């Protein structure tokens, strides 16, 4: 059997060659059998790919569809290749089960199989530069339809044209021979005997057992191969996929499949205008080749008899957005009788020719890639407004999606939101400001919106009020509230059922809410709470399109705790597509966000750099320090550092010493003898992560027991390094509490672990929040985000983290107010120097955005980079990775590498860092073991990166408050006073506090608090420092501390200042009884909110009484002056 389309596969896969050739030969006489053979070709190729990748399981009852999705998820198959496999599979299934199949479908499948064969040859045949020549069309029978006959004629013309072009261009002898052979094949096809091919097919079908045996051999061989080879296959597959070229007809075939998955009836061969296809009631048709004055639109989409969109499709290599202009031209000139036009059209926008359809699409059928937008995805534009800009989609809208979009009245929604008041006293002022900022962003067309609000300031309450307003005025149809943990999802669902919105009705009584357990929302559901993990299962891992949500299922997404998991897509330039897997740069979270065509509102307390780059700059920010100043959050006292002998000196093991190493996964402990020349040293950053000392942890637990007795009000949250470490802390803390207070005073359940491994974590969190016990909870990271336990008064760090975001979230667990237990502040106990390590980091400190790519992967990238620019870019990453690996090498591996390369690793690295990418590639090729030696796990980490067990003795050295690095309370105060005096005449906020307190505003006070917080001068820290230095605890307020430093004002308790001010103002002039009552109310409010300005009287109980305007009437319009008088009287010097 020979076939110029598939002969190139003979050497690397005889079975693929056989199936491809049979599919081609059966085309002339039996399109159905040809389609079945094409399907078998695709199925066998998928199995071979799985076996070559070491992931094939012959015993698994796995369908081809499931195997395809698994290979795509594991990034073995590029997505554009997987789409072609699916198209062949679906047409083959239809032929198998329904005895269907036209010559047009068979020809399309053949062309897809030929493209897959070329990709396979370039990838697994290790022939990336393979040039197959043009597709050679098979012999056709007499019953081939006219369109297919024309396509075959065109394909034959391409074959002959290729031969002429190559001859004219003096092509290589090999290329010219291929072209001539293709032309000769056309002449030979007419004499082919189909009976011979049928007999051959029957004979070969019997050999299935042999095929299974060969697949098993491939699987075993792949398992024995180094991981590096699999990486090379993946990169070669991506490079080959980027060079796939499908013609416009093939592109339409792929689009047919995609449209059908979205709920449209699509067949660009049969459902055409010329074939008589017309819209019908009750059907959603994608009719191909619909006429217009300027040509034929590739597709016209009809919902029933109404045309809702025009699609323009181009072949894969064409940029998509530029094609959208052609679709818009068709939207103006499409031939539509009145009964097929939308009743709200046409849409004029001042054009000579108005748009006759509301929507247009353009695509080249490539999967959407954010970093390669213009060459991928589906581009969509809503033509109903001239201010609507094109935007990319990852998949097609369903018919219902487009109907829903048409029913949304944006102008009415904008007007309704503008006229809707917040209602007096329902929201805090900053929450109203946040909602107003979000709504303004929505109305002006922003689709990615970031809001930053400190932990404990009511982000969920704000989000619920926002959703109520947006749904009430029909700006959005259905909102997805996206969380990353079930505990947070249930907390949100509970809030929706308890938060009163309208009268006595809560949100869930007004709007239908779908909970976590519901896979897809019902038509009547207007809010769904879901975890990212569940949506990954429902979208990325769901093989049945009917069971997936459509991209228009939600038109708004509230992203809770947006800093978690949303890793910025790594840098990806167009030239990188050939050698770097795009899936390495897109997190599952980002894919979910991109999947839905929705406005995204991201909420976070810690807006890291990568969060801003995804969602834009915050439209509203309300920080922790501002919330503390305004009395909505608690501040912390100076942290207490727990210092032991081991934490100060580190842990050291001598060479030749026996050490115990515990396997992180199994818990098994092995004894390991260090080589004589290898010693181990661990500093505090390694404690409980790379080395475990029970003596150290016991002393920390003893300090917790003495510093935080069970009798004190409030709860304690302890952060451990890992789950087994949390178990140890629970055991040791119970023992130390019993030792300190007696066993009878430490009931079971006083100390508890709450991590992701315990049973019914939600119930335990509720117990921690509402019940007396547990009093002390040990966690790893389950309680770092979103969980609301206001009674937490103490945080204990026995875990070192590197992320400022995670650190801020850990601190945020204790910031909430809890007046029921008299909580005025919270305390931090630090056993690992975490506070000192991270406190000075910026909230916007960049987060590592590139994935942790192995050195072997980077070396493969270097080999595949085609330009010098690309090689230089990858080479820089290789050098950085090599430097990191050299630093952690053990002595034995370092010596092996030195012998291999002929110089010390450091010297080699220094020299290579100045060389070109090509020179680095040559060096690596000349030293083939260098990558393996560099990536070898150091001896110091033990088996499976285990944890070394230390039995060194330890003792407590001191527990001391931290005011700064090596700073005493006196030094801290001196630094504060110096800062104030140097800036009191330059910084506006300091000028206001020191020179004109009468006119001080809340905004200026917030600016002052933020400025001082940047320098680590918070009110709680200053109060503690002055208390230690002067042996007196005076709650003088931040303004009092600033004025003392700048002007020498005495430190007087702030509450006393307010009481004195009330007396002074009451005595300043005659007041009515009603006015005196208001003065006292204002005075009481000023003890919590320390600036008297109109905003104070427009919130809380004052708002319920009518706010500033109503109260001003009681003072005959002089309320502004009264407020100024309060500010002046509070900060007036005391009478001599």
Automatic annotation (TrEMBL):
Name of the protein described by the UniProt record: Type I restriction-modification system deoxyribonuclease
PANTHER family referenced in this protein's UniProt entry, alphabetically: ATP-DEPENDENT HELICASE IRC3-RELATED, TYPE I RESTRICTION ENZYME ECOKI R PROTEIN
GO cellular component labels: cytosol
Family annotation (Pfam families): DUF4145 (PF13643), EcoEI_R_C (PF08463), Helicase_C (PF00271), ResIII (PF04851)
UniProt domain Helicase C-terminal: residue ranges: 700-866
Keywords: Coiled coil
Domain called Helicase ATP-binding: residue spans: 440-625
GO BP annotation list: DNA modification
Organism: Ciceribacter naphthalenivorans
Gene responsible for this protein: hsdR
Signal peptide: none
PROSITE patterns: HELICASE_ATP_BIND_1, HELICASE_CTER
């Amino acid at each position: 059997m020979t076939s110029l389309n598939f002969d190139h596969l003979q050497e690397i896969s005889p079975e693929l060659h056989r199936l491809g050739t049979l599919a081609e030969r059966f085309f002339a006489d039996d399109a159905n059998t040809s389609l079945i053979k094409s399907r078998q070709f695709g199925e066998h190729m998928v199995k071979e790919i799985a076996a070559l990748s070491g992931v094939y399981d012959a015993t698994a009852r796995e369908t081809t569809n499931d195997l395809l999705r698994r290979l795509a998820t594991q990034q073995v198959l590029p997505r554009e290749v997987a789409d072609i496999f699916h198209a062949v599979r679906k047409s083959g299934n239809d032929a198998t089960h329904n005895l269907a199949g036209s010559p047009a479908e068979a020809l399309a499948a053949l062309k897809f199989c030929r493209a897959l064969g070329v990709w396979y040859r370039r990838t697994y045949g290790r022939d990336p530069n393979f040039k197959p020549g043009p597709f050679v069309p098979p012999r056709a029978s007499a019953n081939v339809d006219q369109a297919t006959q024309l396509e075959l004629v065109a394909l034959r013309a391409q074959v002959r044209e290729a031969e002429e072009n190559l001859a004219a261009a003096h092509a290589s002898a090999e290329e010219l021979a291929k072209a001539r052979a293709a032309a000769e094949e056309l002449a030979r096809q007419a004499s082919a005997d189909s009976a011979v091919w049928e007999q051959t097919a029957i004979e070969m079908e019997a050999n299935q057992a042999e095929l299974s045996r060969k697949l098993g051999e491939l699987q075993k061989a792949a398992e024995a191969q180094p991981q590096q080879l699999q990486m090379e296959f993946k990169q070669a597959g991506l490079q080959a996929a980027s060079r796939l070229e499908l013609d416009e007809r093939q592109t339409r075939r792929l689009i047919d499949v995609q449209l059908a998955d979205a709920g449209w009836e699509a067949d660009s061969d049969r459902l055409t205008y010329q074939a008589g296809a017309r819209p019908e009631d009750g059907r959603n048709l994608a009719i191909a080749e619909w006429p217009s004055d300027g040509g034929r639109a590739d597709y016209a989409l009809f919902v029933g008899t109404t045309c809702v969109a025009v699609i323009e499709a181009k072949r894969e290599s064409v940029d998509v957005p530029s094609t959208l202009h052609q679709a818009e031209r068709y939207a103006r000139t499409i031939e539509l009788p009145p009964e097929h036009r939308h009743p709200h059209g046409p849409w004029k926008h001042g054009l000579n020719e108005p748009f006759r359809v509301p929507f247009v699409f353009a695509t080249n059928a490539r999967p959407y890639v954010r970093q390669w937008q213009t060459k991928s995805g589906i581009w969509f534009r809503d033509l109903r407004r001239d201010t609507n800009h094109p935007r990319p989609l990852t998949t097609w809208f369903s018919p219902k999606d487009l109907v829903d979009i048409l029913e949304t009245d944006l102008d009415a929604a904008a007007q309704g939101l503008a006229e809707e008041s917040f209602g007096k006293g329902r929201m805090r002022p900053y929450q109203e400001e946040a909602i107003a900022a979000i709504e303004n962003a929505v109305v002006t067309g922003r689709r990615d919106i970031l809001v930053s609000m400190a932990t404990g300031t009511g982000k969920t309450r704000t989000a619920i009020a926002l959703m109520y307003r947006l749904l009430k005025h029909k700006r959005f149809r259905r909102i997805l509230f996206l969380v990353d943990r079930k505990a947070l999802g249930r907390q949100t669902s509970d809030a929706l059922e308890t938060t009163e919105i309208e009268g006595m009705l809560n949100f869930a009584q007004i709007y239908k809410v779908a909970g976590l357990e519901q896979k897809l929302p019902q038509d009547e559901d207007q809010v769904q709470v879901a975890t990212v993990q569940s949506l990954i299962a429902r979208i990325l891992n769901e093989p049945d399109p009917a069971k997936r949500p459509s991209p228009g299922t939600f038109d708004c997404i509230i992203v809770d705790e947006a800093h978690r998991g949303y890793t910025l897509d790594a840098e990806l330039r167009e030239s990188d597509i050939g050698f770097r897997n795009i899936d390495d740069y897109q997190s599952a979270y980002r894919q979910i966000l991109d999947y839905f065509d929705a406005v995204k509102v991201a909420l976070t307390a810690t807006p890291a750099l990568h969060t801003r780059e995804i969602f834009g700059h915050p439209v509203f920010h309300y920080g922790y320090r501002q919330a503390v100043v305004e009395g909505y959050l608690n501040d912390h006292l100076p942290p207490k550092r727990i210092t032991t002998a081991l934490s100060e000196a580190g842990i050291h093991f001598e060479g030749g010493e026996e050490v115990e190493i515990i396997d992180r996964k199994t818990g098994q402990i092995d004894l390991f003898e260090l080589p004589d020349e290898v010693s181990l040293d661990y500093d505090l950053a390694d404690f409980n992560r790379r080395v475990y000392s029970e003596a150290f942890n016991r002393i920390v637990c003893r300090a917790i027991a003495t510093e935080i007795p069970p009798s004190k009000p409030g709860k304690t949250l302890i952060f451990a390094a890992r789950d087994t470490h949390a178990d140890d802390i629970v055991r040791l803390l119970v023992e130390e509490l019993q030792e300190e207070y007696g066993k009878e005073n430490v009931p079971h359940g006083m100390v508890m672990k709450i991590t992701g491994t315990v049973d019914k974590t939600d119930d335990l969190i509720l117990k921690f929040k509402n019940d007396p016990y547990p009093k002390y909870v040990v966690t790893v990271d389950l309680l770092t985000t979103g969980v609301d336990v206001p009674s937490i008064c103490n945080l204990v760090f026995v875990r070192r983290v590197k992320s400022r975001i995670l650190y801020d979230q850990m601190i945020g667990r204790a910031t909430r107010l809890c007046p029921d237990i008299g909580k005025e502040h919270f305390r931090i106990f630090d056993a690992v120097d975490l506070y000192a390590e991270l406190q000075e980091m910026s909230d916007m400190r960049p987060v590592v955005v590139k994935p942790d790519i192995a050195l072997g992967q980077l070396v493969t990238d270097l080999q595949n980079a085609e330009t010098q620019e690309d090689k230089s870019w990858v080479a820089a990453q290789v050098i950085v990775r090599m430097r990191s690996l050299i630093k952690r090498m053990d002595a034995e591996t370092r010596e092996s590498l030195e012998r291999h390369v002929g110089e010390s690793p450091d010297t080699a690295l220094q020299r290579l860092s100045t060389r070109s990418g090509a020179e680095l590639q040559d060096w690596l090729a000349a030293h083939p073991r260098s990558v393996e030696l560099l990536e070898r796990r150091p001896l110091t980490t033990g088996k499976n990166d285990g944890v070394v067990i230390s039995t060194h003795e330890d003792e407590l050295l001191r527990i001391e408050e931290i005011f700064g690095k090596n700073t005493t309370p006196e030094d801290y105060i001196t630094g504060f006073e110096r800062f104030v005096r140097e800036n009191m005449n330059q910084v506006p906020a300091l000028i206001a506090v020191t020179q004109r307190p009468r006119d001080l505003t809340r905004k200026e006070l917030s600016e002052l608090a933020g400025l001082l917080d940047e320098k680590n001068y918070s009110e709680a820290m200053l109060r503690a420092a002055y208390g230690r230095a002067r042996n007196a605890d005076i709650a003088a307020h931040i303004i009092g501390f600033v004025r003392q430093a700048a002007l020498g004002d005495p430190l007087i308790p702030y509450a006393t200042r307010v009481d004195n001010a009330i007396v002074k103002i009451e005595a300043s002039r005659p007041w009515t009884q009603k006015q005196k009552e208001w003065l006292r109310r204002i005075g009481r409010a000023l003890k919590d909110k320390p600036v008297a300005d109109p905003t104070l009287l427009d919130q809380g109980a004052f708002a319920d009484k009518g706010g500033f305007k109503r109260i001003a009437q009681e003072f005959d319009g002089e309320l502004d002056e009264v407020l100024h008088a309060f500010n002046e009287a509070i900060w007036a010097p005391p009478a001599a």
